[in-house]
Amino acid sequence: MKIGFIGTGNMGTILIESFIESKAANPSTITITNRTIEKALKIKNRYSNIQVTESLEKIVTENEMIFICVKPLDIYPLLARLAPYIRKDQILISITSPVQTEQLEQVVPCQVARVIPSITNRALAGVSLVTFGKSCQEDAKTKINGLMRCISKPLEIESDITRVASDIVSCGPAFMSYLIQQFIEAAVSETSVSKQDAILMSKEMLVGLGKLLESELYTLPALQEKVCVKGGVTGEGIKALESGVQDMFNRVFQNTHIKYEEDISAVKDQFLV
């Protein structure tokens, strides 16, 4: 299957690299382009057989599956330009959460889906969020799921939980990274541990925690219970967390949903044109 990518920013590049390194796709079957073509050429420096073009029309006409990896407000004008070149049998996939599949179907005649990846997919792990348009046939769904299964656990979601699902899957690594950085900085500030050792221990703790959860030996509450001995040190640490965290994550979801509604509104104005 020939795959085209329009946009080689952070997430577009992560998908391209993950598909190649998981052997989900051979570099020779992938064609890429970017507004700043030098970014696409940097990828070709690593994968010499990948195809690079400056022609958006070439991407559309020569590939069965096309990933649109551009900013939300760039999608409508891009698709309006390319719609005359798109065939009904092709599969168009947007990776942008504010753009709904039904909006894509207003503009293009082909099968459409939305796939929201995560940076964890770069390690061939984590979840990718999939929403199929009404136009998407079973064969197309199978191809999309098969491709994403090579780099993640694809999870089909409805549009009404897009934001919270994206917060957990796609934004979650950044949120957790921030918390771990604060954890490390506090350890260095409050004790004589070196930052290098604190980083090493924290990293290996996270890797071990991930493996524990993957093994399903413990649930999150059971794991906390196992470590937290009554009257022990861990319990005192949990008390500090309870007093400090409070509604922090509620506010995280509130903030992301406010921004999401703003993005949806801006995109909606375009698609109503």
Question: What would a concise description of this structure say?
Answer:
This protein is an alpha/beta fold and 273 residues long.
CATH secondary-structure class of the largest domain: Alpha Beta
Structural class: alpha/beta
Quantity of strands, as a count? 8
How many domain regions? 2
Strand content: 5-15%
Q: Specify the CATH architecture of the largest domain.
A: 3-Layer(aba) Sandwich
- Which strand order do you get reading across the main beta sheet? 3-2-1-4-5-6-7-8
| Biggest sheet statistics | 8 strands, mixed
Average residue-wise pLDDT: 95
What is the first-to-last residue Cα distance? 34 Å
Q: How much helix, percentage-wise, in residues? A: 55-70%
Low-pLDDT parts are none
Q: Looking at the structure, what is the overall shape?
A: elongated
Query: So how many helices?
Result: 11
CATH topology tier name of the largest domain: Rossmann fold
Could you name the CATH homologous superfamily of the largest domain? NAD(P)-binding Rossmann-like Domain
Rg from alpha-carbon coordinates: 22 Å
Order of helices and strands: EHEHEHEHEHEEHEHHHHH
Domain Pyrroline-5-carboxylate reductase dimerisation: 163-262
Domain Pyrroline-5-carboxylate reductase catalytic N-terminal: 2-97
InterPro entries: 6-PGluconate_DH-like_C_sf, NAD(P)-bd_dom_sf, P5C_Rdtase_cat_N, P5CR-like_CS, P5CR_dimer, Pyrroline-COOH_reductase
Protein name: Late competence protein ComER
